[in-house]
Design brief:
It is a single chain. With about 100 residues, this protein is mainly β. The protein has no helices and 6 strands. The protein has a 5-stranded mixed β-barrel.
């Protein structure tokens, strides 16, 4: 039997701005999971499908993402990224990916 760890609610589309942070490493010290932490302290786990994998290269950088947010049964929020912008300190675009 396979249990679904996400709620059956439909994903909400959103734009989130925050800093990419490492969450979990595997045995080889490679990142397993990253999150985006917003200025108000909310944290969104990044789904590694599609563009999510690319954000591993931008740890501790500020980012603005567009995507869909799903909430797991345990309350953790997961963002599926449709597009992103890596921001410089002065909030100018550095990298744009759609």
């Amino acid at each position: 039997m396979i249990l679904n760890k996400t709620s059956k609610k439909k994903a909400n589309k959103a734009t989130i701005a925050g800093t990419i942070i490492p969450i979990e490493k595997n045995k080889n010290s490679s990142l397993n999971r990253i999150s985006i932490r917003t200025a108000d302290g909310k944290e969104y786990s990044v789904d590694y499908s599609g563009l999510g994998k690319e954000l591993v290269n931008f740890i501790h950088k500020k980012v603005e993402i567009n995507g869909a947010i799903k909430e797991r049964l345990d309350g953790r929020k997961i963002v599926i990224i449709n597009s992103y912008k890596i921001l410089e300190e002065n909030n100018e675009e550095e990298v744009v990916c759609t």
